Structure formats: C-alpha cells, structure tokens
Automatic annotation (TrEMBL):
Lineage start: Eukaryota, Sar, Alveolata, Ciliophora, Intramacronucleata
Protein name: PUM-HD domain-containing protein
Keywords, comma-separated and alphabetical: Repeat
UniProt repeat feature Pumilio, residue ranges: 221-259, 296-331, 332-367, 368-403
Domain PUM-HD: 123-469
Matches recorded under InterPro entries: ARM-like, ARM-type_fold, PUM-HD, Pumilio_RNA-bd_rpt
PANTHER family: MATERNAL PROTEIN PUMILIO, RNA BINDING PROTEIN PUMILIO-RELATED
One Pfam match: PUF
Coiled-coil stretches noted in the UniProt entry, renumbered to this chain: none
Any one GO MF annotation of this record: mRNA binding
Length: 469
C-alpha cells in the first residue's frame, strides 16, 4: 500500500486538478508515478471499475479482455467526482488489487477515441474486426475507408490467404490497370505454386478470365509444360480448364496441348482430378481431335464408372460419337450393368442408357431392373435407376411385381415403408398410367394394410396419395 505521505500527495493532486497519479505495481511494491494530467480530470479508476458502473457498455476484444468504455456515461457521472477522498483512495487501491482482470491500460485522446496498448504476441495472426460500437473508429489492414488498396504484404501472401486472394480478384475485376499489372507480375513469379494453392488458384483463374491477351499467353506458356502435374492436383485442375478455354479456338495450340498430354493420358483417366481435365477436353475441344482417347477410356472403364467425373466422361463419349466407335464401351458397360445400378455414380450411366442408349442395350437394362426390382427399389442409388425406368417405360410391367408376395408381405407394402422404396411407390401412383387402375382396386381391398402404411415413418406420404386416388 502507498505510504501516508504519498497518499497526502495524491489527495493534494486530486484537489488541485492539475496532476494525475498512476499507481504502478513493480516487484510487489507500489510506486506512485506522477503524470501530466489533462484539463477536466476524471478518475479513470471509477470510469473503468465495472463494480462502480455496471451499466457501462462493454464489448469483447480479440484476447477476451472486457473493456468498459464509459464513453456514453462520462458526462452523466462527471458531477460525481466530488466523492469523499477516502472513497477515492479505496477505489484506487481496489483497482490495484484487481490488475489481473484489466491487463491493458486505456486512455481517451482529445477526440474520445479508444486506444489500446497491449504486449506483442508471438505468432499473432490478423483476424477480422467486428465493429460493435459505431462511436469508435477502428482501422484494419484488410479494409481502409471501405476502399480496396494494394500493399506489398498482399502480394507476398497470395498462397494460403483467402482474404488476400479475394481482394486481389476484386482489384482484377476493376479498372485500375496499374494495380492489375502489379498483381500479374507477382503471380507470374509463383504461378505454379499459386495454381496448386487452395486459394491462390482462384487468382490465377481470374487472370485467364480478365487479363490482357499478352498476360494470358505469358501465363499459359509458363504452365503448359507442367500440365500433367497440374491436372492431377485438386485445385490446379481448375486452372488447366481455364487454360483450355483460352486456346480452344486455336487449333494449333490445341494440338500442342494434346501432344503434351498424350504420354500421360492413361494415368489421367485413372485419376479423379485427371478425369475432370479429360471431361473439359470433350466439352471444349473438337471431338475429332479426341478420338485417340477412346481406346484408353475402354481400358479404364471400370474405374471411371465409379468416379464423379469419370462417369460423366463416359456419358459424354456415348453422346458425341456414333455407335460404331463406342460399341466396345457399350459391351463392357453391359457386363457391369448389374453393379452400376447400385453404385453412387454408375447409376447415372444406366439412367443415361435408359433414356438415350441403343435399343439393344436398353432392353438388357430393363430386364436387369425387372429381375431385381425390389432389391433395387430399397437401395439408395438403385431406387434412382428404378424411378428412371418408370419415367421411360411406364409402370405397366411392374404392377404384377408390386402385387406379388415377398417375405410374407406384398411387395408394395415393403416398398411403401422403406426410406427409399417409398419414392418408387409414389412414382408409380402418380404416373397416371391406365395399368395403375388395377393396382388401385387391389389397394381398396386391404384397408388395414393401407392404415399400417399411413402410420409408418416413411409411408405417410404414400398414404396421402392413396387417399387422393
């Protein structure tokens, strides 16, 4: 605690209003340090003591300290500064004893703005600032006066920084030619690394979208020899697509691109990201330049049919080329058809063939679906195949299956209470096919069964449709 003489000096300072004392704790000994005070002295210990002013507005800072501004109630409490001296001293002592709860010293400048002094933290990362008090003005490196600005720090943080890349893309979309040139010069130096980066790849893509013809060509020339490495990367494969969009109208450049890709074509077809690049080739380039890929696709068909983009490559090839060039692909698909019906991506190939495939292959698939109707209908992906079958072929050939007995119960009942089979039942009931009339008459003969369907978790909607029949 302060000595008696020190307390008297402090009391004299408060009465005079000319000086301000701050008690500093050093090595468990308190020292009274004289500081130049402002005019209209206010006791900060009172303003910032949450027990004295519990209604002051508070906001949470990035280090979880709670700072009470006291700004809005400063005038209100100015008249209360004539509290008795012993109370003022006691409050000052209380504040010293509670320094662990207020880690930073705050002061208001002449404009009432909050200034915050805090010790430097290791590994400190800039975080977005949430402005909770409109009367206080904060500045941030990320946004200055709501205007985009470009700094050297931004250019050095292209890789791994989402906010910086969004900022650079916004600048590239703007009309500042000089800023665009500065961004391009920096990206050009690290284009390979940036193309593989989770966030940097978007900036590289943006250059291919809005850059000058010369900038696009320079970027293309830097990346073309790394096309295989880029195509197998989950982020860079999007950049490769932009490269293809850039050259798609230049036959000579497309030929060079495909020649570079040719030695690794088999590896790309057996890679999920590589399939994305192959799909882009069929979507952007002339199909006559891609015929050489068909034999490689035939050899990789089983893998590709199970992949997100691989199955789309197969559908695109069947769509673009005549049956004479795709017959071997169709033959292989028919040997896999029973498996593809149950697969997450393979079922889309089956649906495509039901809609647009040759009659022979379509008939084979229809036979597979009828022979495995119930098992497919209660499968998450198989039920999609059955629904497409009903859309294309109608329900007339499956009514007898629905009315048959399986596991001591009608098939239509088993499907109605199933989480996936109920969709098949709804598709049958709303089809409007004349053959459904027989099925409706059968349902009316089993009211108890219909009630059990309505009471089940997944059969409620089926029951509503039955009521409307």
């Amino acid at each position: 605690m302060a000595s008696q003489s020190e307390e008297k000096d402090l009391i004299g300072s408060i009465l005079s209003g000319n000086d301000e004392f701050v008690i500093v704790d050093q090595d468990d000994k308190q020292e009274i340090v004289l500081k130049k005070a402002r005019k209209n002295l206010s006791l900060k210990s009172k303003e910032f003591d949450p027990q004295i002013h519990p209604k002051h507005q508070e906001f949470q800072t990035s280090n979880a300290s709670i700072l009470s501004t006291g700004y809005q109630s400063q005038l209100k409490h100015q008249q209360k500064f004539s509290l008795n001296l012993s109370s003022a001293l006691q409050q000052t002592a209380d504040q010293d004893n509670n320094t662990s709860s207020i880690d930073h010293f705050q002061s208001f400048d002449s404009f009432g703005q909050l200034q915050r002094k805090q010790s430097t933290k290791k590994h400190h990362t800039m975080q977005p600032i949430e402005y909770q008090n409109s009367s206080l003005v904060f500045t941030s490196d990320q946004c200055i006066e709501s205007k985009l600005s470009l700094s050297q720090t931004d250019l050095e943080q292209i890789c791994g920084n989402q906010l910086i890349n969004r900022k650079l893309q916004n600048i590239l979309d703007g009309n500042d030619i000089n800023a665009k040139r500065v961004i391009f010069n920096q990206v050009e130096k690290i284009c390979l690394k940036a193309s593989k980066d989770m966030f940097g790849n978007y900036t590289v893509q943006k250059i291919f979208e809005v850059g000058t013809q010369d900038q696009k060509q320079r970027m293309y020339n830097l990346l073309i020899n790394q096309i295989f490495d880029l195509s197998k990367n989950q982020y860079a494969c999007r950049v490769v697509q932009k490269m293809m969009e850039f050259i798609k109208d230049h036959t000579q450049l497309v030929d060079i691109f495909l020649q570079i890709m040719y030695p690794q074509i088999n590896q790309l077809l057996n890679d999920s990201n590589g399939n994305y690049v192959i799909l882009s080739c069929f979507e952007l380039f002339n199909k006559n330049q891609l015929i050489f890929m068909i034999p490689y696709i035939e050899d990789s068909l089983q893998f590709m049919s199970k992949q997100t983009y691989g199955c789309r490559v197969i559908q695109k090839v069947l769509e673009l080329y005549p049956i004479e060039q795709t017959q071997r692909i169709l033959d292989i698909l028919m040997t896999l058809a029973s498996q593809l019906c149950y697969q997450e991506f393979g079922n889309y190939i089956i649906q495509y063939l039901l809609k647009s495939g040759p009659p022979k292959e379509k008939q084979i698939i229809c036979s597979i679906i009828k022979d495995n109707f119930e098992q497919l209908s209660i499968n998450k992906f198989g039920s999609n195949t059955v629904e497409k079958y009903i859309d294309i072929m109608g329900p007339n050939q499956i009514i007898t299956i629905l009315c048959s007995i399986s596991n001591d119960q009608f098939v239509f009942y088993n499907l109605s209470i199933n989480p996936f089979g109920n969709y098949v039942m709804k598709k049958v009931l709303i089809s409007g096919d004349p053959s459904v009339q027989y099925f409706k008459s059968l349902l009316k003969q089993y009211p108890d069964l219909i009630q059990r369907i309505k009471n089940s978790d997944f059969g409620q909607r089926v029951g509503l449709i039955m009521d409307a029949l």
